[in-house]
Amino acid sequence: MKQVLAALAAAVLAGCGGGGSGGGSDAGTAATEAALSAQAQLGAKIFVDRTLSASGRQSCQSCHDPARAHGAPDDHAGQPGGKDTLPDQGGRSSPSIRYLKFNTSFAFANDGTPTGGFFWDGRAASLKDQAGGPFLNPDEMANDSVEDVIAKLAQASYAAEFRQVFGQDIFSRPQDAYDRLKLALQAFQQEDPAFAPFSSKYDEVLRGKATLTAQEQRGLVLFNSPAKGNCAACHPSAKGADGSLPLFTDFSYDALGVPRNPKLKPVQEDPAGFHDLGLCDRAGFDKDRNRDLCGAFKVPTLRNVALRGSFFHNGRFTDLKEALTFYVTRDTDPARWYTQPDGSVVSFDDLPEKYRRNVNRTEAPYNRQAGDAPALTEAEIDDLIAFLKTLTDGYVAP
Predict the structure, then answer these.
(1) 379, exposed or middle or buried, with CB in 10 Å at 0-12, 13-18, 19+?
(2) What CA–CA distance (Å, rounded) separates 98 from 27?
(3) pTM as predicted
């Protein structure tokens, strides 16, 4: 994928990014409450409040577990959701929302590279905008309307606090109250350091306070090498010109040709007809003018990638080594990934045929043909994984 030419602007306020079932301990304990603004303290309560869903069994935290770097709590392709919290709702996996406050709104760079935006397809202009989506998504928190959400909020244990911060009559104005709900969520995720702790071993290495092992160092070299992993092309690993620590994403988009995932509910309901086109499925996106972007999805951060239970937009892989093996053998051994029930091999089978030409086949490690040697050996993949594990937050020196 083309590199983003200019440094990304910082500090777009953050918000909730998905729904599901399950949960965990109160996410607000990740920060000292006294250090948060009144709005952010409300956001901490909203983030874990299951009563704001139609089922009463899910909250923002249900799909964004602090123990998994605010990503999905398990390895399911899709999280439970809807009024009855049925399993594997929706068509996409739940990404981590950690470090997203440094993202920007969607735009095309001067060279035509799509960048920024929120959700896998960039359809939300900001994380405040993103925060409102799951509450009304029928496959997620499944409320019928804004009024439905605010009626629940008005009955919450912290409703008086909400009125104190946003006005005593706020619940009589549902649209305004909904906007303030999103403001509270974004304030929480912007202010709570747990959403951008920069506390991995690699961060300590860049600060000069830790040293990579020999295997981790080999992995870093492979990560950066344009002829080997070439990961840094979309996941920059170096400090910014201003000395800022790397985010391990350039917030751009790529079409990777990830195999179809039969576990997703939409695929099960329509095995032949359902296709997720990524950017091209956004409302208002000019599919005819930008058909070369159909099948492209947001490049996620690789920070905390070792904590993820599933990988890629459709959760097709549930093992980090398998995901990396796919990267380097997708083109050298397509039968390994794309063999159909009838025994035929259809590369990039999760896209309609007319869009398969959009899949990235020019950059390493994809610039190979069937039968060629992969860009990385199995031992090199192990080295790369060793490095990726240094990106996990919460490092404690031995």
Answers:
(1) exposed
(2) 13
(3) 0.90
